[in-house]
Each structure stands twice: as structure tokens, then as C-alpha cells.
Design brief:
453 residues, mainly alpha, Na+/H+ antiporter like fold, 18 helices
Length: 453
């Protein structure tokens, strides 16, 4: 029996070292989600252009029905992903925005001004470029496509450098990408809204008042916010406003304070630790035998729950689901561009393609760098410590990775398949070129830079 047990332990250790630990380390990496997203995007393109195109379209239009009594909602799978699951993505974006505004890089005017100005430049210049290419044409509705930056891909690209770049540059990129997300959400809400159904808006308003009251009266049970959030999403879905806006609205009311402050938490933990008294040097596995120890551990667990904010709990719980399931599903359902019916001479002469390509690949770095330069030169803001303008230029190139938000806005902009395909092609190409340009520039700058004396 000992030989069998030893063999089992050996197999378990080998499996753990060869597969489990490398997998855990991979999923902890910042670049992991962007690698998976890129892989799924490539898979979607291959699937859509293979002989299995019919199955890809069938996958996108699999009917999914939700029924509550006499109320029935039925849409295709791609519609549920874009209008349903992506609400969780926007909810997570909203939580990140709220955290940054409260305690992060957007928490004070001085700290926020540089990334906010960078984000404004990164939206205005690309939007203007697209506008000029498509002026006087129906395709002008897509002006919002090149204004967005994909924070997952951009941060994943920068994570390749590890600690070889200044920490402030990562903070700057994350902050302006989050500020950019605020602008993208506002653009979706204001300019990509269909006919408004006022009765649903009124109901949403009442539900949001209930959310505000729950926050005001220190309700910390996340299930309350989840129920109210689902109801708000449901009524926004039928209001004409894009349903993903519900994610942002609900996130604004998630409590950012725990039940305990840190001082109270420390006092309670110290008191509970005093309950661990053992006669011998080690308590061993007394938790199985000593009821007082078990009560102390359960009390510590409750104290940890009470000091942590609902905002933190939700953000940490949602992040892996959004990064590794929701966004890859979105890419799988939306990135399946078919090249069979595309005429490349027409693609590269189409104003939609040219506007998006020029907006993301050229307009983004120019807008981000120019507006950052103006903010610093007018002394409204200052560059973070250890960062020079070459760093800003490299990060601004990575800002041209539009992908998720750009694909999302393109789906809202065009109803025709041809223009949608042109937009997808331009988004994918511009994002790829921006990633290559940004990574290459930062790599060669970092390599050729003289070490400090």
C-alpha cells in the first residue's frame, strides 16, 4: 500500500509542477487575458473564413430565451453576449472608474489632469480624423469607433516589459485608458441611443433611488445590489438606451466603504488572536478539537469580510470572469470577419476603413501626446517621476489598440454587413499595427537609452 501511495503522491506532484502551477502563474499574469483574447480572435477569424462559415453564423444566432411567467425575451446568442454579458464588463469598468476617482490616479485634479487630458486628446483627434474622411456620408455615424482604447490589450502589451519600464508609465497608461472608458461610455449613452421609452426610464430612475438609499443606509449585502442591478438592466433593455449602460449606472452606487474601518478591524483581530492559547509550543490541528479556536477563526473570517468594501469584493470576484470568459466570448461572437466577400482595393479606398485606420494608428498617438504636452507646458499638470516624452509617445501608440470598445461601437454604428466588415477589418488591422509599433518603439528606446551615471 505504501508503494501505491508513494506512486500516487509522485504523480500528483508531477502533475502539479508540470500543469497546475504553470497554469496558475499564467492566469495571474497581467498579459494572460490579452493573450487569450488574441487567441480567441484569431480562432473566430479562422472559423468564419473556413468551410464551417455556416456553423459560425449558426453559433452567433443560437436562440436563447428567458421567460418570467408571461414575459418572454428571446434573442440570438451574439445579441445576448453584446447586450447581456457585456453589461458585466461595463459594470467592472464602472467599478474601476469609481475606485480610481476615489483613491487612484483620478482622485485629485492635479493627479487626474494629465491622464484626463491625454484621454480627451485620444478621443478628439481620432474622432475628427474619422469625421473628415466620412463627412457628408451615412457612414459618419461611426465616428465613435476610433475613440476607444482597449485597456486589457494595452496593459497586456506593456506587461511584456516587466519592470524594465518606469512604474509611473503603467499608471499613466491605465489612468488615461480608464478616463478614455468614461468618454466611450458617455458617447454610447448620448450618441448611440435609439428611440427612448420614457416609462422604462422612469422605472429605472426609481430603482436607482432604491440603490442610492441602500448605499446611504449602509446596506452591505451584495445580493440587494445584484437584484436591483438586474432589474435596471432589464428596463434599460426596453428603454432604447443601450443596456450595457446599466452596468455603469449600477457600479456608481456600489458602496466603497466597509462595515469596519481599519483601526476597528485591527483591534478585533488582536482580540481574537488572544483566544489562541495552547499548553504546548504548537497548537497543531487544534481547530478540530478546540471550539474556542474554531469560533476565533470564524470571527476573523467575518471581520475580514466586514473590513473589505463591497466594491473591492465585486471587482475581485468579477475580474477573472470578465477577463477569461466574457471578453473572449465577445471576441468569438464579433471578431469573425469574413475575407471571402471583401475586395481589398475597395476596403483600402473605403472612407470607413481609412477613417478608423488613420484614427487609431495615427490619431491616437498624436492626440494623446499633443494634449499631454499642452497640459504640461501650461503647468496644469506634470510628467510622473522617471517618465520622459519618449515614454509618453510609446504609451500613446499602445493607446491605438481599440479592439473591444471599438468593435462594440461598430456594432452599434452600422446595420449593413458590408460596412460592419470594413469597420472590423480596420479595427483589427489598426490594433495590430498599434501594438507592434508601441512595443517595438518602447523596446528599442529602452535598449538604446544610456544607463544613468
Amino acid at each position: 500500500m505504501k508503494i501505491v501511495q508513494t506512486g500516487r503522491n509522485f504523480i500528483y506532484r508531477q502533475f502539479s509542477e508540470q500543469f497546475v502551477r504553470p497554469a496558475q502563474q499564467f492566469f495571474r499574469k497581467e498579459s494572460a487575458s490579452s493573450i487569450i483574447l488574441a487567441a480567441v480572435t484569431i480562432a473566430a477569424i479562422i472559423w468564419a473564413n473556413s468551410g464551417l462559415f455556416e456553423s459560425y453564423q449558426h453559433f452567433r444566432h443560437i436562440p436563447v430565451t428567458l421567460q418570467f411567467g408571461n414575459l418572454e425575451i428571446s434573442y440570438g446568442l451574439a445579441h445576448w453576449i453584446n447586450d447581456g454579458l457585456m453589461a458585466f464588463f461595463f459594470f467592472l469598468v464602472g467599478l474601476e472608474i469609481k475606485r480610481e476617482i476615489l483613491v487612484g490616479e483620478l482622485s485629485s485634479p492635479r493627479k487626474a489632469l494629465l491622464p484626463v487630458m491625454a484621454a480627451i486628446g485620444g478621443m478628439v483627434v481620432p474622432g475628427l480624423i474619422y469625421f473628415l474622411f466620412n463627412y457628408g456620408q451615412p457612414s459618419i455615424r461611426g465616428w465613435g469607433i476610433p475613440v476607444a482604447t482597449d485597456i486589457a490589450f494595452a496593459m497586456g502589451a506593456m506587461a511584456i516589459f516587466g519592470n524594465k519600464l518606469p512604474a509611473g508609465l503603467r499608471i499613466f497608461l491605465a489612468a488615461f485608458a480608464i478616463a478614455d472608458d468614461i468618454g466611450a461610455v458617455l458617447i454610447i449613452a448620448l450618441f448611440y441611443t435609439r428611440e427612448i421609452v420614457l416609462s422604462n426610464i422612469y422605472i429605472c430612475g426609481l430603482l436607482m433611488i432604491l440603490l442610492a438609499l441602500s448605499n446611504f443606509f449602509w446596506v452591505r449585502h451584495t445580493i440587494i445590489y445584484a437584484i436591483l442591478g438586474i432589474l435596471i438592466w432589464f428596463y434599460i433593455l426596453g428603454s432604447g438606451v443601450h443596456s450595457t449602460v446599466a452596468g455603469i449606472l449600477v457600479s456608481l452606487f456600489i458602496p466603497a466603504q466597509g462595515k469596519y474601518d481599519t483601526d476597528k478591524f485591527i483591534a478585533k483581530i488582536k482580540k481574537r488572536l488572544d483566544q489562541f492559547q495552547c499548553e504546548e509550543r504548537s497548537c497543531g490541528y487544534s481547530i478540530l478539537l478546540n471550539e474556542a479556536h474554531m469560533d476565533a477563526v470564524q470571527g476573523i473570517e467575518l471581520d475580514c469580510h466586514n473590513v473589505e468594501t463591497p466594491l473591492q469584493r465585486m471587482e475581485h470576484a468579477l475580474h477573472p470572469w470578465v477577463a477569461f470568459i466574457i471578453l473572449p466570448l465577445f471576441a468569438l461572437a464579433n471578431a469573425g470577419l469574413t475575407f471571402n466577400e471583401i475586395s481589398f482595393p475597395q476596403v483600402f479606398s473605403n472612407p470607413v476603413t481609412l477613417g478608423i485606420l488613420a484614427g487609431l494608428f495615427i490619431g491616437k498617438p498624436i492626440g494623446i501626446t499633443l494634449f499631454s504636452y499642452l497640459a504640461v507646458k501650461t503647468r496644469m499638470a506634470s510628467l510622473p517621476e522617471g517618465i520622459c516624452w519618449s515614454h509618453i509617445w510609446g504609451a500613446s501608440m499602445l493607446g491605438g489598440i481599440g479592439f473591444t470598445m471599438s468593435l462594440f461601437i461598430s456594432d452599434l454604428s452600422f446595420s449593413g454587413i458590408e460596412l460592419t466588415d470594413y469597420a472590423k477589418f480596420a479595427i483589427l488591422l489598426a490594433s495590430l499595427l498599434s501594438a507592434i509599433a508601441g512595443i517595438s518603439y518602447l523596446f528599442f528606446y529602452n535598449k538604446t537609452r544610456r544607463p544613468p551615471v
